[in-house]
Amino acid sequence: MAEPLVSPRRHRLEVRVTPEQDALIREAADLEDTTVTAFVLDTVTSRARRVIKDHHTILLSNEAFDRFLIGLDKPAEAVPELVDLFRRNAPFVE
Q1: 16-34 pLDDT per residue, tens
Q2: What is the pTM of this model?
Q3: How many domains does the chain have?
Q4: What are the distances in angstroms from CA 51 to CA 25, 47, 48, 87?
Q5: The domain containing residue 55 runs over which residues?
Q6: Inside any domain, residue 12
Q7: Residue 54: inside a domain, yes or no?
Q8: ∠40-17-50 over CA atoms, to 5°?
């Protein structure tokens, strides 16, 4: 039976904790029947994924979403300052 492919761990994180934090983390790891390293990695990785998702997801109320859709359906309006800027600094020369 082939062993599963596991990417090697190449980076190390070190943190300083109070004695109380250490005891709390160790007790939680013991209760989960896992190592402190596995417990901390699982906990921190899950939290990191949630934080990233929260920062990439926009939640709107139904009313706000309806206003957003109405705005998208409106014809585009030229912004005079941008029109002038692009005329002066054309990024593409023909």
Answers
A1: 999 999 999 999 999 999 9
A2: 0.58
A3: 1
A4: 21, 6, 5, 41
A5: 19-88
A6: no
A7: yes
A8: 40
